[in-house]
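hey so u asked for the seq, here:
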Amino acid sequence: MKADVTVSRRDFLVAGAGVAVAASLPRPAAATTQEADEMLKKLIGNAVPKEGRVQLRLKDVAESGAAEPIAVAVDSPMTAADHVKTIHVIAEGNPAPGVASWSFGPRSGKAEVAFRMRLAKSQTVRAYAVMSDGTVWSAKQEIKVTVGGCSG
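ran it, structure tokens below
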């Protein structure tokens, strides 16, 4: 049975105006280091990351932050007893610090991702690998951006 939903022209215009106002409100141009740390805590809980096992590959200088290539690889045998469960990437200077997360299992073969990311400004990019035993490994790199790729 099909429901008959009618929306008046006035209701439609009022709803559209609300969306337009919300879209025009200023957003913070960049997350703070504290906001990035809060995002990390949501992702990994109280685990204390250790440096190592994670290789973060990106340029030192990006002429444009519109679509910067980034790769993350984790040194892991990817066995049932020892494998990467997730990889998280956080960008401290973007409007939203959580860039992306990927899930893995022992059958993934290797824990490696490559993607393109927008960068609002020069900043530190961090990568974290959560292992099957609960340990967290990390890497970070500073990238200088001459022209930001995030409109704000």
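Strands lie at 50-51, 54-57, 61-62, 68-74, 84-91, 98-103, 111-117, 123-131, 136-145. The helical segments are 9-24, 33-44.
lmk if thats what u needed
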